[in-house]
Amino acid sequence: MAKPIVYVTRKLPTEIISELTEKYQVKMWEEEEVPVPGDVLMKEITQASAVLSMLTDTFDEEVLNMASQLKVIANLAVGYDNIDVKACESRGITVTNTPDVLTETTADLTFGLLLATARRIPESVDIIRNDQWKTWSPYMMAGSDVHQKTIGIVGMGAIGEAVAKRATGFDMDILYHNRNRKPKAEEKLGASYASLEELLAKSDFVVSMLPLTKETKGMFDAQAFDRMKQSAFFINASRGGVVNEADLYQAIKDEKIRGAGLDVFANEPIGSNHPLAQLDRVVALPHIGSSTVDTRNRMAMLCVENIKRVLDGMEPLTPVKN
């Protein structure tokens, strides 16, 4: 009897894939930095029982219609807006993601991005690299303090709480906005619940930790930036689609807010010609929130475990519910 086929949409370490090769036939797109083309994915998915996917892979009706044998899509990400979960459910396809294992790593990056933006660290590095440091002056590359300022976290999930925990080390006042109140976080971290309008008006740093949904798409728009302090920074380490990027560009250009730190964009990848990347007061990163070797390995192993469990007729560890 032929082994079930597991298709992996990006090159992953051999030691991780070897966990699948004993029981399954593993086929893998052998590129690490280039996403699998859509036509290749549609061809491979016709015979696959499982797919270990990346957030760059789209699973819509057109793709899923080709998947006659597919039982599970294990997405190597917390977010799953690249997958039509409802369409998967109607076909009996289980969707899984990788929460929790990347929480602390992503929170590290988010707070690092906040610090780099406030203190103009990348700009200062460029001064050295471009041989522009001629003398010391009292206001050269003067940035903004982080300690004892107010951070407003929009989306108080596990990563949002981890960011808030880091903010306590900087003696920051912590505001948060979420669909549901988090009494334990309020007690443990000293965080205060606020309406979105109040959070935007009071925060020195507005941090988006939102998933991308119909409700959150474009939430941060001109109206939101108008409500923020002129001295405030916008930080996004969640999903690019929650921001109207043209409005953010204009808000920074018109000095309605001071700047932004962005790890994600609406259409990725971007280049140096992207309008936001051309602004001095924007720190732009290439979507590296959870990108450490340890964490990416843990994410991949969780995907592998979810695939094994579903193909063995068991419940996955981290199923996505529509």
TrEMBL record:
Ranges for domain D-isomer specific 2-hydroxyacid dehydrogenase NAD-binding: 111-289
UniProt entry tagged with the keyword Transferase: no
S-adenosyl-L-methionine keyword on record: no
Domain annotation D-isomer specific 2-hydroxyacid dehydrogenase catalytic: ranges: 6-320
Pfam families on file: 2-Hacid_dh, 2-Hacid_dh_C
Keyword line: Oxidoreductase
Gene3D superfamilies the UniProt entry points to: NAD(P)-binding Rossmann-like Domain
Family: Belongs to the D-isomer specific 2-hydroxyacid dehydrogenase family.
Protein name, UniProt field: D-glycerate dehydrogenase
Species annotation: Allobacillus salarius
Native organism taxonomy: Bacteria, Bacillati, Bacillota, Bacilli, Bacillales
